[in-house]
Design brief:
The chain is an alpha/beta fold. The chain has helices at about 1-10, 15-20, 25-35, 40-55, 65-75, 80-90, 170-180, 195-200, 200-210, 225-240, 250-265, 275-285, and strands at about 130-140, 140-150, 155-165, 190, 215. A hairpin with a 2-residue loop joins strand 1 (about 130-140) and strand 2 (about 140-150). InterPro entries: HTH-like_dom, Integrase_cat-core, RNaseH-like_sf, RNaseH_sf, Transpos_IS3, Transposase_IS3/IS150/IS904.
């Protein structure tokens, strides 16, 4: 580090004075400066800008392991520990902001459906289990409410809706989009929390009409709906918490681009063997 400091200042100050100030020998500094760059250092210098580019392309949301997986997928040979070391050296950190979720108790609702999953978030194929949840996003024009449905098998967002009001129509619209995109099989499990938008008669009747089996997490237990919770954590940590939206329309456009352009098509999932949801579905259909 002292030699590097001298090198940055040698055009301004005499090398002899810099060496004396930092208590190093001039011969040692010149030997360090004129020494050929090692293969390891050269490889690091080549890889570092690539890491920065990937970090930006993935919305600054990946840790060392996922960055390493992206590089491997692009044919760049390097070790996981080297990626971790260079990532730390360059100050590349995944964007994470902790937020508190306010849970509001609703009264006079139909009794909740039994929990069909019991925190077992594994299924054998597409369109066997869908998980849903909703959240709110701040804008300067007020809250934007977002509802989403995910296919548990591939973690793909198959239905979503956004609105200025957190009413039952919001979740019904997300469900309608999912039904348009996917084939509903008899006995498909629909899992959500006990929110009023999912417990209401209109939503439950729609599930019955479609032949779905309703399932609900226990009251106040976020772990019972962990996959949907994880999706919104990703959305907020990698997009929402780092933006200041002026209007709901602006937020809607950004969220749409994140879900359809990045999350479904590009974002790697550890639970999917470091594949994106769409790539995981494609490989599953090929096998």
């Amino acid at each position: 580090m002292r030699y590097a400091c001298i090198r940055t200042q040698e055009r301004i100050h005499r090398v002899s004075r810099l060496c004396a100030a930092l208590a190093v020998s001039r011969s040692g500094y010149y030997a360090w400066r004129d020494r050929p760059v090692s293969a390891r250092v050269a490889a690091d210098q080549h890889l570092l800008p690539v890491l920065r580019d990937v970090h930006q392309q993935t919305r600054e949301g990946y840790g060392a392991v996922k960055l390493w997986q992206v590089l491997k997928a692009r044919g760049i040979r390097c070790g996981r520990h080297r990626v971790a070391r260079l990532r730390k050296l360059a100050g590349l950190e995944a964007r994470r902001v902790r937020r508190f979720r306010v849970i509001v108790a609703h009264h006079q609702l139909p009794p909740p459906a039994p929990n069909q999953l019991q925190q077992c978030f594994v299924t054998t194929g597409l369109n066997r289990v869908w998980v849903g949840d909703m959240t709110h996003v701040p804008t300067r024009a007020g809250w934007l409410y977002v509802a989403v449905l995910l296919d548990l098998y591939s973690r793909r967002a198959i239905g979503w809706a956004m609105s200025a009001r957190p009413d039952q129509q919001l979740t019904l619209d997300a469900l309608a989009m999912a039904v348009r995109q996917r084939r509903v099989r008899p006995g498909l499990i629909h899992h959500s929390d006990q929110g009023a938008q999912y417990s209401c008669l209109a939503y439950q009747r729609q599930l019955v009409r479609l032949g779905m089996i309703p399932s609900m997490s226990r009251k106040g237990n976020c772990y019972d709906n962990a996959v949907a919770e994880s999706f919104f954590s990703t959305l907020k940590n990698e997009l929402v918490h780092h933006q200041a939206y002026h209007t709901r329309e602006e937020a809607s456009r950004e969220i749409f681009a994140f879900i359809e352009g990045f999350y479904n098509r590009q974002r790697l999932h550890q639970s999917l063997a470091y594949l994106s949801p769409l790539e995981f579905e494609r490989r599953s259909s090929d096998s």
